[in-house]
Amino acid sequence: MADAIVSRLGQANGAGDVKANFVKVATGEILTAFARTAEFTDKQLVRNISEGKSASFPVTGRTNGARYHVPGTEVLGTVAKFNERVITIDDLLLTDYFTANIDEAMNHFDTRSEMTKQMGEELAQAYDRNCAQVAVLTARGGAVVDGLPGGGSLTNAAFLTDSDVLAAAHFDAAAVLDDKNIPASERFSFVKPVQYYMLAQNTKVINKDWDGKGSYSDGKVIKIADIPLVKTANLPNGKNITDGPTKYQGDFTKTAALIMHKSAIGTVKLLDLAIESEYMTSRQGTLIVAKYAVGHGGLRPESALELKLA
Q: Is 5 exposed, middle or buried (CB count within 10 Å of its CB: 0-12, 13-18, 19+)?
């Protein structure tokens, strides 16, 4: 009897490594998990670089005001001030997983897909934590360009416990940002899950008669004061962070929430999220590594507000 003709699902075009396609599946899971869980990726300015260790972001000031022209006088221009912010790439950030062939053979359910999903989520959480920390620190900073305002804060002891107080703070924040001529579009409010669900139960926030946006039954809040709300567990609330890169460290024990415009912070990507997978004959298993090389930094302090406890 002739041998069966076996189609190896892992091979690319029926040739080569019998596990090649399986690696691609794992890659997709990591990328999907990262995109699904990272909240800051599309709420800031991002630049990709192909080489080097840093990138420069120009910060422009404003012209020196409008004025009435006197007939016959020459128009020569006014002084406009500029500055730049340089964001440096951090060390390579990675997470890894090794699975033994014998364990996968004996196991009755697939563990590799679940672990690769968790690897993507772990990198996403680290990305968001660093962005949140640098955004709060940016809100504490002074003006980058002479003549422009610096960052700011709103203070109330009840930001974590009183939904009316927290909702009112969004209107105060909108007024502050308006006074600083920060665009009304692309503003975001980052709050802890407990604050988010507290607001979802506030009738003034979600009541349609008040033109509220959200749903009590779904536990969703869309926006307050035209500022979309983002639920995140990665705000550095109540922490004094002294580990990791120095530029992300700070005392956040009074931090309650963060409201910012997209221009407040930026990210530089040298190596975007990628995966490496290698079958190690000597160890009879597969090593999977997910990694990226990025850096985060503050750009415009006037675009960020820290909500903090008294």
A: exposed
d(CA 228, CA 209): 19
Task: Give 66-124 pLDDT, tens digit per residue.
Answer: 777 888 888 877 777 778 888 999 999 998 888 888 877 776 556 677 778 888 888 99
Q: Which helix or strand (DSSP H or E) is residue 276 part of?
A: strand 265-280
Residue 233, in any domain of the structure: yes
Give the tokens for residue 40. Answer: 């800051």
**Residue 203 structural domain:** 20-60+79-308
Q: What is the pLDDT of residues 196-215, one digit of tens each?
A: 999 988 877 876 545 566 67
What is the domain count for the chain? 1
CB neighbours of 128 closer than 8 A, spacing ≥ 6? 37, 38, 39, 40, 232, 234
DSSP state of 202: -
Q: Which of 152, 144, 172 lies closest to 266 in space, CA to CA? A: 144
pTM for the whole structure: 0.80
